[in-house]
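Input record (Table S2, row 474):
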Amino acid sequence: MRRLSSFAALLALVLAPLSGAQAQGQTPPDPLAYGQDVIAFTHVQLVDGTGAKAKPDQTVVVDHGRIKAVGPSASTPAPAGATVIDGAGKTLLPGFVMMHEHMFYPTGRRNYTEMLSSFPRLYLAGGTTTMRTAGSMSPYADLNLRAEIEAGRTIGPDLDVTGPYLNGVGLPILKVHALTGRDDAVRTVNYWADEGVTSFKGYMHLTRAELKAIIETAHKRHIKVTAHLCSITHREAAELGIDNLEHTFAVATDFVPGKKPDVCPDQNLTAATLAGLDLDSAPVKALIADLVKRHVAMTSTLTIFETYTPGRPEAPERARVLLIPQTRAQYETTWAAIAKSGAGPWKGAFPKLMKLEKMFYDAGGYLMAGTDPTGYGGVIPGFSAKREVELLVEEGFSFEQALQISTLNGARFMGRDKEIGSVEVGKRADLILIDGDPVKDAMALERMPLVFKAGRGYRTDVIIDGMRDTVGLY
Ligand SMILES: [Zn+2]
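Output record (zinc ion complex):
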């Protein structure tokens, strides 16, 4: 009897849910710094996300979550009773609209685990106010999280929820369904559209027949399709009418020698092909021209490829402390091995990738940005979006262009540019405040004390420091 009752007590204890705060033995501090109805940023440098040149000494008035006025501080008064934020020495930006994010993180041995507690907060604290979950391991989790955020029960970016990875046979990830053909592709797209996803993503092992069926079925429902391709070339997917291609030219198999139709070549061979590619050659220029002509948007995700490239910086310590010991060790060990080897296909492929993206843009191509927190880790929400913008500047874009790629272009692609994507009167007040001048030095993005979503301002340090030892767990 005694053994039984103590067992029952133990069971009750085990089953009692512990909230995160209880588990840490304390109430986390409130990250909300500004919840007032009317807020005025005065004397701030403004980069508005439209690609226009930075404007000095501006005032931006926010009223009930919307941008009410934008103009020179000399002629744009702060309304009486407004909460004034002195922006002298600071820069105001629109919130990032990132197109290749995920709610999961690589937790080892081909496991990708949802970070439904830490990631929405961290994405927001890194300046991302809208994101596409470009390929989901757990679409119901992303859909339910979207509802939680919309209801104000969780802070985080607006979510464009992408359906499950649409992939055929050949991927060793047990969470991903392997499509059995065209009919299965149609059935799967319709099912998830009914469930409420708002975008789809094809993956590496599709046949052209399957991708064609995916695009046609999704388009009938007015849903756009992107893909991380491998078995299908960029040229083939563009001909099939795809809307968007992930990772730009990093995964293009168009130039891989011996490429067989509908078969995904070895990824190292694809990267090695990119490393050796003659960027001035006619086939390269023809592919770029074709993608531009067919209005295929491309998503740059330099952050993930940087992790595979020797000689590139490690994720900052403040980001690495967010990782639990196991995911931190996984990242640091692999990063150190790549750094030590000093070799691998990405050493040559990464600079080529940067040049190709710039060539595509300069030829009139539509470029968007994302971060892709996958691989072996180290692309960490809260830090990755600003890193992507910094890398776009390194690629050769002006800061204003890099920002437009990372804000308004994504909003326009999703058909949400009337609402978000730039700092313009009438739009929702999704704003980033930077301490310093990122136009002069993009690394100033690292000093991002406040992020506003719909006019509510959050202290990023409170969110980030409250998320130590979480990434990899929840
Ligand atoms: Zn991805």
